[in-house]
Write a structure and sequence with these properties.
The protein starts with a helix and ends in a 5-residue tail after the last helix. By secondary structure, the protein is an alpha+beta fold. Strands 2-1-3-4 form a four-stranded antiparallel beta sheet. The radius of gyration is 39 Å and the shape is rod-shaped. Strand 1 and strand 2 form a beta hairpin. The chain has four helices and four strands, in the order H-H-E-E-E-E-H-H. About 45% of the residues lie in helices and about 10% in strands. About 5% of the residues are buried.
């Protein structure tokens, strides 16, 4: 009798207590059908849903990456403009000048026969249309010591107006 009890105890211990996952939530969240009338889950339908989800994720990621790529291209173009402007500014700063340059003033650039550049306060009109050397352009020296071509010097700079408008729209007026 003791042997029978001992063998029963051993079989009870050998049987697994948990024969699978048990869903403890509401029936509507069950990963498997819980009622006799519940629709059957087919492997094909599941595979189609996974494929559709993969496609949607790839489309969303591709769209976001395209936006980033466009931003990179725009930043590269802006960087090229900045570098070209800096090169021009450096070239203009190395031009000879026999007077002290003052920000806000417009100076006229000429090129001698030996390809050296120099600034003058006299425009081609001041020379009655026949300057002594080749006229290369007129430039205004800005407070940040950058140079603005005279033809663009009168263009309005709407940057400050845009900043002010953004601040006002957020209630952060100056």
């Amino acid at each position: 009798m003791a042997d029978e009890q001992n063998s029963n105890t051993q079989t009870d211990q050998q049987e697994p207590e948990d024969k699978g996952e048990i869903h403890e939530g509401p029936d509507s969240t069950s990963p498997y059908p819980v009622e006799r009338g519940a629709p059957a889950f087919s492997l094909v339908n599941t595979a189609q849903e996974i494929a559709k989800a993969d496609e949607m994720v790839n489309t969303r990621v591709s769209g976001k990456l395209k936006v980033i790529a466009d931003q990179i291209k725009a930043l590269q173009a802006e960087a090229e403009e900045i570098m070209a402007s800096a090169e021009q500014d450096m070239e203009l700063h190395t031009a000879k000048c026999n007077f002290q340059r003052q920000p806000g003033k417009t100076y006229h650039l000429y090129e001698k026969e030996d390809s050296s550049l120099y600034f003058s306060m006299l425009s081609p009109d001041d020379w009655n249309g026949t300057p002594p050397d080749t006229f290369r352009g007129s430039y205004r020296l800005e407070p940040d010591y950058s140079w603005t071509p005279a033809e663009k010097a009168d263009e309005p700079d709407d940057t400050q107006a845009l900043v002010q408008q953004l601040l006002e729209s957020r209630g952060l007026e100056k």
